[in-house]
Amino acid sequence: MNGTGRRILGSLLAGGTESVLRGTCNRTRSPREGTILIAPSLEAGLYDAIVAARAVVCGSGGMTGHMQSLCRGRGIPVLRVEEEDLADLVGEVTLYLESASIVVGSRPAPPPGSGKPALDAVGSACAVIADLQDITTINACGPDAARVESFFIREEFLCLALGLSPLDAMAGGAADIAAYGRAIGERLRGFVGALLPGQRLVLRMLDLRSDHAADVTATAPVAVEPNPEMGLHGARWLLGSVGYREALHAVLATLREHLGEEADRVGLSVPFVSDETEFVQLRDHLGLPDGTPLSAFVETPSAVHATTALCLAGASELFVGLKDLVQFYLAADRGNHLVADSYRTRHPAVLDGVRHVVESARAAGTPVRVFSLASDLDHYLAHLPTPDGYMMCTAELQQLLLSPGSARTG
Asked: What's the CATH fold of domain 7-104?
């Protein structure tokens, strides 16, 4: 390492395509293209500044928080340091991702190469995306882009990109609800236009925790919950919202109006569902047209044990959400760096739960896809039964698609 600047050690929460990068620190909440964003924590109010950044340095948070996942999908590195070290990050700094460190005034060293797992092993891949550019990024990866069968998007990420406040819309009356649904539908319509033949889009319906809702809501009341992760969100919230049901119908009507039969390339997924009873109740509550496929996210221990029942209840597909599943199995908050050593994505109990989901879904004939960080993929391939495919964030999947070291096994 060259230079004489101070070296600050941290923890890498999300990697990128470069091992070493240099940039100017942005200590504001305003977007400044190509800079390194410095923030005490990552939250929804920083969305514009985050997506404009070349890298992010924060003082708290875990590997799989929502904003950290957004960064991972975009290939934006996230490094966490001690909060007292944030004050020293001004001017030009250099991030060394492999050593999880930052140096002020140092010149970057050349990045080393790395091996990749076999591409065929990921099966029918699903890319976890944050916006339209993620689809174009994947589909620009040459012939292997066709191995990506689906793209998965969280509705709250669409809201952030469009500047929408969903709770304000739901509380604002029929016109506001319809406008919200049309805006989401129009955005998804653009996504469908970027798909290759045979690809589809999966919308994870709104899953806005109260702490995140407070950052993007201006007028609607938001309950203060002692533990938002285990509070009123996901399927629980959707079941109680008549407004969301009407908004979803506006989404589907917009897609059908502009895309015709191509609207069927957009599927719906239930977030944070506890069991088959909740799944059936929500399907009835939403009043979906007959024959509309509805998949489910398995991210709680109760959903793991209800896998067979969820399949029998008509779930068209299952997605295993490892990020939440790990924290609930191990009672380790994924956003709390103080328990980072306890948050283990390869813990035997977690893998046993995933194994149960894959084997149960296979027995029922229901497709199942498992989320994986790139760093865990080799381990999962070696220790889990083969699902229909793996889900990965855009930047990590792109590296796998483009890697010359990703040998084919077929």
From this structure: Glucose Oxidase; domain 1 (3.50.30)
